[in-house]
Design a protein that fits this description.
This protein has a single domain (2-93), classed as Alpha-Beta Plaits (2-Layer Sandwich). The protein is built from four helices and four strands, in the order βααβαβαβ. The chain has a four-stranded antiparallel β-sheet with strand order 2-3-1-4. The protein is 35% helix and 25% strand. The relative contact order is 0.31. The chain is globular. By secondary structure, the protein is α+β, with helices and mostly antiparallel strands.
Length: 108
Amino acid sequence: MKTYYYVLASQHFLLEEEPIHEVLKERTRHYHEQEKEIDFWLVKNPAFLEAPEMAENKSKCPRPPVAIISTNHQFINWLKLRLEYVITGQFEAPSPQIPDPLASLTTV
């Protein structure tokens, strides 16, 4: 299992009110220049929210939700400080309650 960290917000807030695409595009460019593997993903309607242990965060987040998931805890902390109005957390996956969050994703 791997530990994933996330910021969670409404799609309206994160994708329309915040210039998050620019932030992720710049980070992607930097990773490519450094020949570093991408360790973050933008996920609409994240499946991990369906796990019983995520019920509280799911109920706090306006619909429809979007998450930025990463294996880099520092990046998620930086996003939390930059964005302010987001929910943060972490989870272990794959597990019986949470499938691999990256199984059907492509990088940002």
